[in-house]
Amino acid sequence: MGKIILVTGGARSGKSAFAERLALKIGNGRAAYVATAQIFDDEMNFRVKLHRSRRGDNWTTFEAPFDAEEKICAAGKDFDAILFDCVTLYVSNFLCKANTDDEKFLYDNLRGLIGKLIDAALAVDAVTIFVTNEVGAGIVPENKLARHFRDLAGLANQLLAAHADKVFLTVAGLAVDVKKLAEVD
Fold it and tell me: Domain residue spans in the chain?
């Protein structure tokens, strides 16, 4: 049975770099990388290249802007560690493809989408590390699409955290296991 680790934090908090180190440690020097980004412009192309530049031959990349549960299952056949980067881009892909304001549809379908990721991660004989952004700490967004994104990303994070064995919050490149701290009560 697989295990789930969730790594969250703000933009440029060091979450991906931490998750990459953790995946290589768990995978004994090799790991699968499930990439959710879609390249639509020069800025995103730069960001993808930046992420790739940190990884060497120890990584096998699975492109998955959609239907990522299939890639988790495929990666789980050959790897002990799977890095899923990132959940918030995956939510954004879903939200843009859905192209609707119907909140019931969005919430119901997001629950199903994240449920598939969780089921796949638990079904493989590997540790799946999900990287996500903590987007709820700022001001309430001005427009409806941004509010939907914030709310859906927060829901996705909560669903993943509920099934995670560990949840790390990264701040200034440092990671704290917040699930361990929460279980002190």
Answer: 3-182
The whole-model pTM stands at: 0.93
| b/e burial code for range 134-143 (CB count within 10 A of at least 16 → b) | bbeeeeeeee
CATH code of the domain occupying 3-182: 3.40.50.300
CA–CA distances in Å: residue 96 to residues 90, 100, 124, 160, 168: 10, 8, 29, 21, 28
pLDDT digit string, tens, across residues 52-70: 777 778 999 999 999 999 9
Where in the sequence numbering do the catalytic residues fall? 51
- For residue 119, the one-letter residue type is D
